[in-house]
Specification:
159 residues; three-stranded antiparallel β-sheet
Length: 159
């Protein structure tokens, strides 16, 4: 973690030393990426938690999910067998990891993790796509973390 922080500081310092035209090129590139990301979000309706179809598998899962725990955060694990979600049984502020319990399991034949940006952008967004086409958006703590890499590997295997 220290070396990662050190590398980010070095990158920031090197960008500071870049010539003005290079800074402008990088700024334009970031704006272009942001516009493309926002277009994908708008095109696929990814600005909502789920697709809005309460009768679909995602909507039914979401309704059951909230009955298992009042805590707003979940731990999501992806395995070849499916997706596992764990949560504390109630709102806790200290040591919540000690209280985690599995609250839901989604078999791999019912749903899969999917990166809607196909790895093009560093993002915290992933989708749980159900077999009926419905979807549920989840936000990860890490930008392009291990869950993203898992989803991208699964997408590559499915192609």
């Amino acid at each position: 973690m220290f070396f990662e922080l050190l590398a980010k500081a070095e990158d920031a310092f090197m960008r500071f030393l870049d010539p003005k035209d290079e800074k402008e090129r990088l700024r334009a590139k970031r704006q272009d990426e942001k516009a493309r990301r926002e277009a994908i979000v708008a095109q696929h309706g990814l600005d909502t938690v789920f697709d809005g179809h309460w009768q679909g598998l995602a909507g039914q899962f979401l309704l059951r999910w909230y009955t298992h725990s009042t805590h707003h955060q979940r731990l999501l694990l992806a395995t070849p067998e499916g997706i596992v979600l764990a949560a504390p049984p109630q709102r806790v502020s200290v040591g919540r990891e000690k209280h985690l319990q599995v609250v839901a399991r989604i078999p791999a034949d019912e749903a899969s993790l999917f990166d809607p940006f196909l790895g093009e952008f560093e993002t915290r967004m992933l989708l749980i796509r159900f077999k009926d086409g419905s979807r549920l958006r989840v936000e990860t703590e890490d930008l392009r973390g291990e869950l993203h890499m898992y989803a991208l590997r699964q997408s590559a295997v499915g192609d």
